[in-house]
Design goal:
16 helices; alpha/beta; seven-stranded mixed beta sheet; about 375 residues; Glycerol-3-phosphate (1)-acyltransferase; 7 strands
């Protein structure tokens, strides 16, 4: 497996040293405070972890359950019957939170008695030693961002080869987002380039190439959108300036904000797998059209299973100035949502009307 040493997660021999580094990290006191445990006890607990199983099924499971208790009102899932515990899959989901989309799916797979999956993780997000060690212990593998066109092509080919290796040789599942980066405007669309990238590692037969990956769409829904305020400001500044320049530490801030902010009801749905018959039905299309149609097939399974919350309907009606979906929410829920929008008062120098339009779109666009 040396061909993938530059991107793979830690192997079994590397985990003990990585947990020692985690235990010694300066961020442990903050995590311990959040969990309500003494920092010394948490450090000792982490130092005692020597295997992936001890990490994922022990400490990480407890951390996720504490996180769910603190930040969600309800966490549920459906569609587990669509997957077989004996099969590895390429899970492809809409992407709303940097780390939680994949971590919650891992938790669901574990609770359903299935093996956890390996997770794509952008190189731009490996911005702190703790994040790197935590991610690579937790089966995250590096995906490169940026570079010249040739470097980008080689990185995509390398990742495609690795994911196929994981699924067909290691018999492990993989999680990847349906597009490069999180959905920021509330519109979930699978990028055909992602589907095309899957096939880069086997070019002899495009149907067989995708079919052997056992592609499974996953729909992820948060009642309160992850980093909604940060996404609103980023979209606002992008629209105003024509681009957005990230500040140092911004990715880490987004990770922490997404983890710690209230989420309300969180729902996952595991959709039916894209079968060889599904792909054969599209095989008469030219190459570019083929991958576009596969992406549309993914969307046709993900989007209907996005769990629409009262917030989505409230935002739709507020943006349109109607009461079209007034039967989907209460007056109290609407008042709470409007009150929540007071965060915009902290930015008097910005155009309030434009901020509201962007913010409401994040919640309302999915209704349409």
């Amino acid at each position: 497996m040396t061909n993938f040493d530059d991107i793979r997660p830690y192997n079994a021999e590397e985990i003990p040293a990585a947990t020692q580094r985690l235990a010694d990290s300066e961020v442990i006191p903050a995590i311990a405070q959040y969990l309500g445990v003494p920092a010394k006890a948490l450090r000792e607990r982490i130092r005692g972890i020597k295997t992936l199983k001890e990490f994922q099924l022990g400490l990480l499971k407890e951390v996720i359950e504490a996180l769910l208790k603190k930040t969600t009102t309800k966490f549920d899932w459906s569609g587990v019957e669509n997957i077989d515990e004996k099969k590895p899959y390429m899970f492809v989901s809409n992407h709303r939170d940097i780390v939680l989309d994949a971590m919650f799916l891992q938790y669901i797979l574990n609770e359903a008695g299935q093996n956890t999956c390996q997770i794509t993780f952008g190189s731009n997000l490996m911005c702190h030693p703790f994040v790197i060690d935590f991610g690579k212990i937790n089966k995250m593998f590096r995906t490169e961002r940026g570079g010249s066109p040739k470097e980008f092509y080689n990185s995509m080919l390398h990742m495609s080869e690795y994911m196929r290796y994981v699924i067909t040789e290691q018999n492990e599942s993989v999680w990847i987002a349906q597009r490069n980066g999180r959905t920021k405007d509330g519109i979930d669309v699978t990028d055909p380039a992602i589907i095309k990238m899957f096939g880069m590692s086997r070019r002899d037969d495009r149907v067989a190439s995708l079919a052997e990956l056992n592609i499974v769409p996953v729909a992820v829904s948060y009642e309160w959108e992850s980093c909604d305020k940060l996404k609103t400001l980023e979209l606002y500044l992008t629209k105003k300036n024509g681009h957005y320049e990230k500040k140092p530490g911004e990715d880490l801030n987004s990770i922490l904000t997404g983890i710690m902010q209230p989420k309300g009801h969180v729902h996952f749905h595991i959709c039916p797998m894209v079968t060889e018959a599904d792909l054969n039905a599209l095989n008469d299309c030219p190459s570019g059209e083929f991958y576009k149609r596969v992406a549309e097939l993914m969307d046709s399974r993900i989007n209907p299973h996005f769990y629409l919350h009262p917030n989505n309907y409230i935002a739709h009606d507020l943006r349109d100035g109607t009461t079209t979906y007034a039967d989907r929410y209460t007056a109290e829920q609407k008042a709470a949502f409007v009150k929540y929008m007071d965060w915009m008062n902290d930015y008097p120098e910005l155009d309030r009307e434009e901020l509201e339009a962007i913010f409401l779109g994040i919640y309302a666009n999915v209704v349409r």
